[in-house]
Design brief:
Strand order of the largest sheet: 2-1-5-4-3
Largest sheet: 5 strands, antiparallel
Distance between the termini: 6 Å
CATH architecture: 2-Layer Sandwich
Radius of gyration: 13 Å
Helix content: 40-55%
Strand content: 25-35%
Number of helices: 3
Shape: globular
Structural class: alpha+beta
CATH class: Alpha Beta
Number of domains: 1
Order of helices and strands: HEEHEEEH
CATH topology: Beta-Lactamase
Length: 121
């Protein structure tokens, strides 16, 4: 099933500027991903899991519930985190901020297939 996950993540990597598309366990371990050769995938995944924990804690603290999607925008790109389940999330790293709309569209389209593929492992 990880080949199915890899194929789904390939839809993100086909966009210009996508440096990393991955499914990550909530403990920060990579389940499956596709990335540029210069990306330190394991390090990024570990730090990203902490970002999701922070976003979830903030949502609970301000009474807004669990996160649906976390978007971190930087001068030179963005990071999008989307929980798939209590055990996994999707991580997208882009060097282009103008990819946000397309990333969100693809996340909506592929959320359920990614969820199903991860649950089949």
């Amino acid at each position: 099933m990880t080949s199915e996950i890899r194929d789904l993540l390939g839809s993100f990597r086909s966009m210009d500027g996508i440096l990393l598309a991955a499914v990550v366990a909530t403990d920060g371990l990579l389940i499956e991903g596709v990335a540029d050769k210069d990306v330190e995938v394991d390090a990024v995944c570990a730090v990203a899991s902490n970002g999701l924990v922070m976003a979830e804690a903030l949502g609970r603290e301000i009474g807004r519930g669990g996160g649906i999607q976390t978007i971190l925008e930087y001068k030179s790109g963005l990071v999008v985190l989307e929980p798939l389940s209590e055990d996994a999330m999707v991580l997208i790293v882009s060097s282009r901020r103008n990819n946000l709309g397309r990333i969100r569209f693809l996340l909506k389209r592929y959320h359920q297939p990614l969820f199903d593929a991860v649950n089949a492992i």
